[in-house]
Design brief:
The structure is a single chain. This protein is mainly alpha-helical. Helices cover 59% and strands 6% of the residues. It is built from six helices and three strands, in the order βααββαααα. The protein has a three-stranded antiparallel β-sheet. A hairpin with a 5-residue loop joins strand 2 (33-35) and strand 3. The radius of gyration is 15 Å and the shape is globular.
């Protein structure tokens, strides 16, 4: 993993938009970057898709709540056109939102409350919170 400044992040996002999924994967871009706690960006490991907001509010990409949300993304959202569109919009907007507001309690607390309720709903619907590799 290595740091990139924000300009590099947005340049890479534009490059990814011009590539198809296979080309982006081969170039190591796949789903982009995850925001670090200091507002810096780190390239995510390949084969992972970021949960920027969830990672911010739960403090880790590898925790039960984020595993559940990643399963929902991969097993439900990615299966439909509207779900994939939502994912694309989310990845375009959420890194900036997290870099600007992620250190603020007024942002993290209400979002965590909403996400926790949604995670409980997903778990009742059968989504696991066991460790997940995507």
């Amino acid at each position: 993993m290595f740091d990139h400044d924000e300009d590099d992040f947005w340049d890479d996002m534009l490059i990814m938009e011009m590539m198809d999924e296979d080309e982006a994967y081969e170039e190591g871009y796949e789903d982009g970057y995850e925001a670090g706690s200091s507002g810096s960006y780190h390239r995510r490991p390949q084969n992972s898709g970021g949960c920027y907001v969830a990672t911010c509010v739960y403090g880790s990409y590898d925790c039960p709540e984020v595993w559940t949300l990643r399963r929902f993304r991969d097993n439900y959202l990615k299966r439909s056109y509207w779900g994939r569109l939502f994912i694309k919009a989310y990845y375009a907007v959420s890194p900036k939102v997290v870099s600007v507001f992620g250190s603020s309690t007024w942002f993290r607390l209400p979002i965590k409350t909403i996400l926790s309720a949604f995670v409980c709903y997903l778990k009742r619907r059968g989504y696991s919170d066991n460790p997940y590799k995507d």
